[in-house]
Amino acid sequence: MTLQIELNGVNKYYGAFHALKDINLAIEEGTFVALVGPSGCGKSTLLRSLAGLEKISTGQMKIAGQRMNDVPPRKRDVAMVFQSYALYPHMTVEENLTYSLRIRGVKKAEARKAAQEVAATTGLSHLMKRYPRELSGGQRQRVAMSRAIIRHPKAFLFDEPLSNLDAALRVHMRKEIRALHDRLHATSVYVTHDQIEAMTMADHVVVMRDGVIEQQGRPLDLYDRPANRFVAGFIGSPAMNFIPGIVGEGGADVILDFGRTRARLALAVRLAPGLGVTVGIRPEHVRIVAAGQGAFDIPVGVVESTGSATYVASATQPELTVVETRRGDVKSGDVIGLAIDPKQLHLFDAETGNRIE
Ligand code: ATP
């Protein structure tokens, strides 16, 4: 496999502000990469740097083996798809599609043929004579993507392309984009703040915070083995529970601190007695059992049901949320037992937040 995108030691400063900190990334051709992280983490800056819309301060950036640091955007052979679609309002769909080819000197008939071919793959054939204002949000997004596809770029760069669409259409479009990617085998870099989008669409997820890559890897590897507390809390929905604890005298269990109450929980590993840890427990890895039958008992606070799932939150500080797919008869004020498999615990150093092996 050849590397399509390579970043080595990339830093970006806006004046004194350090927006990208020592970014290293190696993306193989044909990979769908998601850049994900909270607002302001630097994901758009990274994408815009790939597009050439921002100039990196130090480090090296290569696309298809070619150094790109000083190459202007239009010579990079990458196509960007924006959240705002950036369509030309006074042009029809067909004109929007053929425009980029026409300005590159492609003959009219040839450009129209290319537009028709792309429109057939993106389901726009019947809309070619319409203007952007006569299209739905999803259709406009498809025009924006078609306009990128028609150029056969070396990489597609998506900047939160679905954030203007309603929830149902977003779910539909994310499948469409992924299917399109599979058909075209193009390298795609996709910026989103939505971890579910990142998890479901990407082959490779890059989690960023404050200009730093916190972790990158295959989606389920990030879910199964988050490198630190931040990634653990960011990946997964509903979010992981975090309970402070101290490793017990024998090193084989942990005493969880629920404020007014404490609970002892067995560990699958041996740790230094007295070590301060943060115990991560995913809501889907806890089973509700009768009081006295689980690892420990806990009082029930709020119970919410969406129909398909029931969320049971403990009346403790911090709260521990359990999600169950079967409908139970648990209600606020009950005392329940919690069954927890020690192998499914995530243990983080209380000081650094880093995962403990
Ligand atoms: P969002 O999800 O809100 O779009 P993001 O992760 O894409 O966030 P960026 O737009 O990459 O974040 O911005 C990263 C940081 O760099 C932010 O703190 C932002 O304020 C800062 N920043 C971005 N552009 C500039 C600029 N032109 N001048 C100064 N600071 C900037």
UniProtKB/TrEMBL annotation:
Coiled coil feature spans: none
PROSITE patterns given in the database record: ABC_TRANSPORTER_1, ABC_TRANSPORTER_2
Classification via Pfam families: ABC_tran, OB_MalK
InterPro entries referenced in this protein's UniProt entry, alphabetically: AAA+_ATPase, ABC_transporter-like_ATP-bd, ABC_transporter-like_CS, ABC_transpr_MalK-like, ABC_transpr_MalK/UgpC-like, Mo/tungstate-bd_C_term_dom, NA-bd_OB-fold, OB_MalK-like
Localization, UniProt: Cell inner membrane
Membrane topology, from the record: Peripheral membrane protein
Molecular-function annotations in GO: ABC-type transporter activity; ATP binding; ATP hydrolysis activity
GO cellular component: ATP-binding cassette (ABC) transporter complex, substrate-binding subunit-containing
All residue ranges annotated as the ABC transporter domain in the record: 5-235
One GO BP: carbohydrate transport
Principal localisation: membrane
SUPFAM superfamilies linked to this entry: MOP-like (SSF50331), P-loop containing nucleoside triphosphate hydrolases (SSF52540)
Family, per entry: Belongs to the ABC transporter superfamily.
Protein name: Probable sugar ABC transporter, ATP-binding protein
Annotated source species: Sinorhizobium fredii (strain NBRC 101917 / NGR234)
